[in-house]
Design brief:
12 helices; 12 strands; alpha/beta; binds zinc ion
């Protein structure tokens, strides 16, 4: 049976507050379940302004995707001129709504922005602390430990894979690889997002590009962002879901894909970093 996993990342305060309720409404109308990967702690999005100076590709993406329309102007100041608000921790009721609607909830980040911009320069202790804070707060919010981790911006390294062993995750969704594999260092199953995000491809052709990629009858994972598919691309998201349903594709949370995969037949390897089309920094693949 062809399957499409929905990996819904929540990266910002705006996305948690506005994007998640919009996506919940869409999934309810289509009677579908997905996996929400939550950012728990501070929204330091404003620190991205520092990236504008350092990374010309980032500036290009900001202009091209009209980032202020995506996230609102306030988001651009969090962690700089405005204090960084907590993301999921500010909205326990929305977290409850996600769970009550029957969706899978997993761990995406403590501080998404700092991981994304600063991971390579941070110490192992910083990484340990980032997980300890994130996961204990996740547990307070949801009443249980996460069983999966999806790294911010699909950015991981060998230190991360070693540190997360102690959390005994059932699977990871940390890469943009083409097919599932076992992470060599941590010995954990990787269920990658193999499809492009809407904001990486031509907005007008996005639905047809993605629906062409999923019609082969295989198992695919669509990376969704609360800020995007719960905001300016909500109509395209709905159109894609409608198309996938008409194609006979079963739309599922990632844990269903995990149960479907035969781990014994999946190869073990290391991931590597690669700059994918439409992105401003390399992703693990
Ligand atoms: Zn993210």
């Amino acid at each position: 049976m062809p399957m499409l996993g929905l990996k819904i990342d929540v990266d910002t305060y705006w996305g948690m507050k506005n994007g998640v309720p919009s996506i919940l409404q869409t999934l309810k109308e289509f009677n579908l379940k997905g996996t929400f990967f939550l950012s728990i702690g501070p929204d330091n999005s404003g620190r991205a302004a520092l990236q504008l100076i350092k990374n010309p590709l980032f500036l290009k993406k900001m202009m091209w995707t009209n980032a202020p329309a995506l996230y609102g102007w306030k988001t651009a100041l969090y962690g700089t001129l405005l204090p960084a608000p907590m993301i999921a921790l500010s909205f326990p009721q929305i977290v409850n709504d996600i769970i009550a609607a029957g969706h899978e909830v997993q761990f995406h980040a403590w501080d998404h922005r700092r991981w994304q911009d600063e991971l390579s320069g941070k110490s192992e202790n910083w990484i340990r602390e980032w997980f300890a804070r994130g996961i204990s707060s996740f547990e307070k919010l949801t009443g249980k430990k996460p069983t999966a981790f999806g790294a911010p911006s699909w950015l991981i390294d060998d230190r991360v894979l070693a540190i997360i062993k102690e959390y005994n995750f059932d699977y990871l969704s940390c890469t943009r690889a083409k097919s599932p594999f076992i992470h060599e260092i941590s010995n954990i199953l990787e269920i990658p997002s193999d499809l492009p995000c809407f904001e990486e491809i031509d907005a007008q052709k996005g639905v047809s590009i993605i629906s062409d990629l999923i019609k082969d009858g295989g198992i695919h994972v669509l990376p969704v962002h609360a800020e995007v598919e719960g905001g300016i691309f909500q109509n395209q998201f709905r159109e894609l879901l409608r198309k996938a349903i008409n194609m006979g594709i079963e739309i599922v949370p990632l844990k269903v894909i995990k149960d479907k995969l035969d781990v014994k037949t999946i190869p073990a390897r290391k991931s590597k970093m690669e700059l994918l089309p439409g992105r401003h920094s390399p992703c693990a693949v």
